[in-house]
Specification:
Low-confidence stretches: 195-207, 417-433
Strand content: under 5%
Number of helices: 17
Strand order of the largest sheet: 1-2
Order of helices and strands: HHHHHHHEHHHHHHHHHHE
Distance between the termini: 21 Å
Largest sheet: 2 strands, antiparallel
Structural class: mainly alpha
Shape: globular
Length: 433
């Protein structure tokens, strides 16, 4: 029975990882070029490009509260399938849109779909792992996602041609197809119904969903920290870094694809090594180190701006920026997701994951505002200085989070393996959507 249970969990996790990697492969085709696509290919200007990213946040505000409740009530599988189909529709619409209004509607559909998928996938990973294997599961997921995205970005860089709108339409069509593949691969997964009593941390389960969440000081502080993290790095990838690299440094759009490849290579090369290191240390230490690493990344970006776009020094400095971002991301992969899982009461796992995804999407959507406005106004130095301050804040807030984070969530308490023998817990043996 124990062997069957363990094989079921491994099989479910494997399918989640494969489906997620394939959808990330599709996203890689379009992610580095969204800003260029809206501003130059469709000729709608930087303000419309900024509105596109703002709509991603608006979509998250609309769908994530409902998505979290849906996951807790119906399970993550049907929510994920619905989100993947909606994302595919949004991506295809994005590639075909030619006017401001049609592209904004497509952006809302796309953002709503992606933000629905994220907490559902996170919940699937949690339910397909135990606390002793969870950090490795999240790290592997992150590695596969970035590998898929990096390969997609490099291939997309060879296809994209700003003088041919059809080349971008092709990229968005590939993305739509990959999200339909995600729906197909994950649509029949049978997951363990819930965490075992040993996996579920001893936390209050009373009160309404949002009252419980908002009353959780550790989760609130983690959300603030996550907002800083996603604003300062992930929120800049699609817009701020791209705008700075092309407008200020002067590197070509195809070089952006290479930069994403360097970022991916750094993650793939370091991720499993980093997992072993962080397994023996507090998670807040890894997060604090991320702020320092990203500070160095922005310093290299500043150095790149001192040279001409075609020079090896400029390109090399920007590649170092992407590589250091990858180092920081590798430190975060085995920390943030497991912390949320350890903080969440078992009955509110979907709600906690949705709240975390909401913070992530809002921060990522607001990030471009800083990059587009400052870089577009010729204030690149101020832009880099602002991001450096955010990186310092990440380190400071991470240390302060340690004061309220339960020891088990901070990896400061010993963890026992739960997938070993025939546990009497019937919940772990059951399956759900």
């Amino acid at each position: 029975m124990a062997i069957t249970k363990e094989k079921t969990m491994r099989g479910a996790l494997r399918r989640v990882q494969v489906g997620n990697a394939l959808s990330a492969f599709g996203s890689g085709f379009t992610l580095p070029y969204m800003f260029v696509y809206v501003e130059k290919v469709r000729g709608l200007g930087s303000m419309t490009a900024w509105l596109v990213f703002t709509l991603f946040a608006a979509a998250a505000l609309v769908v994530l509260p409902l998505g979290g409740r849906g996951i807790d009530r119906f399970g993550p599988r049907p929510v994920l399938v619905a989100g993947a189909v909606l994302t595919a529709l949004g991506a295809l619409s994005f590639g075909l849109a030619t006017t401001q209004w049609t592209i904004l509607v497509a952006a809302f559909l796309f953002g709503a779909g992606v933000t629905t998928c994220q907490p559902a996938l996170a919940t699937m990973v949690v339910r397909s792992s135990t606390r002793s294997t969870r950090a490795h599961a999240f790290a592997l997921q992150f590695t596969l996602v970035n590998l898929g995205m990096g390969i997609g970005a490099m291939l997309g860089g060879q296809i994209v041609d700003v003088s041919r709108p059809g080349s971008l339409t092709l990229l968005f069509s590939i993305e739509a197809l990959m999200f339909l593949v995600l729906a197909a691969v994950t649509g029949t997964i049978r997951l363990p119904a819930a965490m075992t009593a040993e996996d579920a941390p001893a936390r209050k389960a009373g009160g309404s969903d949002f009252r419980t969440l908002l009353g959780d000081r550790a989760m609130v502080k983690l959300s603030v920290l996550a907002g800083l993290i996603f604003f300062a790095c992930y929120g800049q990838f699609e817009s701020g870094v791209a705008a700075y690299a092309t407008s200020t440094v002067g590197i070509s759009p195809s070089a952006l694809g290479i930069g994403l490849g360097v970022n991916t290579f750094a993650i793939v090369l370091l991720q499993m090594f980093v997992v072993r290191i962080t397994a023996r240390r507090r998670r807040t230490t890894a997060i604090a180190a991320t702020g320092i690493v990203w500070l160095a990344a922005w310093i290299f970006a500043g150095v790149a701006g001192l040279f001409h776009g075609g020079s090896l020094a400029a390109i090399g400095s920007m590649m170092m920026t992407y590589a250091l971002f990858g180092v920081g991301e590798a430190l975060l992969a085995p920390t943030l997701g497991p912390i949320v899982a350890d903080l969440a009461p078992a009955r509110l796992l979907g709600t906690y994951n949705a709240a975390f995804a909401l913070v992530k999407q809002v921060a990522i959507a607001l990030g471009p505002a800083l990059g587009v406005l400052l870089v577009g106004a010729g204030l690149s130095t101020l832009y880099l200085a602002a991001l450096a301050v955010f990186c310092v804040a990440i380190t400071v807030v991470a240390w302060r989070l340690r004061r309220v984070l339960p020891a088990v969530a901070d990896n400061a308490a010993p963890v026992r393996s739960t997938v070993v023998t025939g546990s009497p817990q019937p919940a772990e043996l059951a399956t759900a959507a």
